Amino acid sequence: MKAVAPLTGVLEHVYAPEADTQAWLEGIRRAAGRAFDGHLDAQAYLLRMQESRFELERVASDARYAAAIADSHTAGADPRVINAYRAGGPVMRARDLYRRIGASHPTRAMAIRAGVMDVVGCVGFADPSRVCVISFVLADEQTRFSRAARLALSRLSAHLAASHRLRLRAGDVDEAVLTPDGALLDASGDAKDRGSRERLRQAAIRTVRAKRESAHDPAASLAFWTAMVDGRWTLVERVDTDGKRLLLAKRNQPDSIADSALTERERIVVERASLGGSVRHVAYELGLAESTVSETVSRALKKLGIRTRAELIELRASLA
User: Fold this and answer.
1) Considering the entire predicted model, what is its pTM?
2) Which residue range is the domain that position 97 belongs to?
3) Distance between CA atoms of residues 238 and 244, nearest Å
């Protein structure tokens, strides 16, 4: 399985200002299905996760697999599956999940009856309970999955999380308006700070570069277009009434864990790290340097009195 079409085209659907949620998901599903080869079908859906159950909010899927998705999440409504989802990171594969929860789990039998031998999921957590997923149905458990495809899906999951969070917070004020070449047309709040203006300018230029590079390398081009800028803003493209393309910097910080011993940035970085993402993934998701994320996680773990990220994942429920 590999990327065969520009993934920036998928992001245009991910960040589309589509008011209807079902139409939004359908656009993402179709774009993702065209962007990767080696799968039977693609789906896009929204989950709400409680401690012991899934609520499948919306599904965009071919009719052959829609019932299987609903049935598998109903059967999978137990803490083991939900904890595996939360700790599994931005890219999950069904065969790996079954190794954790047992091959005899009822979700596996349901999937096989529906002709689903394996699934790769691109999992974007807007927050610890609200999830947007793109999943790809595979013909068998031996389907090869390139490192480049895994990295591309990891990056795509960060954008799913950012866009879903923006939709949940509909009505938030834009803190900056930029042209595609990075010229700042308007700013408010923290975006007025000189350092923030420069970071937003550079991010705007990188977003345009990602689109330019995408024709040469569909997967690697996403390296330039991070899901957030400086852990605070997400850039989305809009066309104004005169037909000019603009980039809007929307405030989009993830919810942070509740612990007064940590700084605001530590709380946000730890919250993202507690959802199973690597340092590299968290850095991409928040638009921060990997060294910054690594140092922040280490400092926060020390303050929390724990040593490993595995312990952090276990502790997350009590911190949330």
Assistant:
1) 0.91
2) 7-168
3) 8
